[in-house]
């Protein structure tokens, strides 16, 4: 294996930012990204992934291969979120178990970008529609995380906690899931 390929993947931006964040935590630094910049990054990533996903989906068309990939993405992410929740629930409280189970899909974006950049130099062609599956990944996990809290919060004795769910995040997640397909229809 070519050492320059390994070096280019280690020096990839997501990996470097992860190392910087990990170092800041270990050094107990007060490094913090301001909320407004954090929101800007979120919106930028939302549009970038959605536009690339919609464009890739448009180029590929709706074939049986694309439909199977999209359906499989939703099913796998939902199943992983559910079983992660129950495993995490053995050691964590309801809210943390739901949040960690839901956040697994966001880690997939970094993995997807790293895997794509790794496969590109070795001439392995991945379908353009796979970016649409990336845009689709976070929505089922977010919805499953919110639903797991909603279902199990009724079992809590403190009824004041039952009204703390933010369904706005659920609707943003649904919009993130629908946006690439709207882009495909418009083009």
UniProtKB/TrEMBL annotation:
Coiled coil: none annotated. Keywords: Membrane, Transmembrane, Transmembrane helix. The keyword Acetylation does not apply. The chain crosses the membrane at residues 6-27, 36-54, 66-88, 100-119, 131-153. This is Uncharacterized protein. The lineage of its organism: Bacteria, Bacillati, Cyanobacteriota, Adonisia, Adonisia turfae.
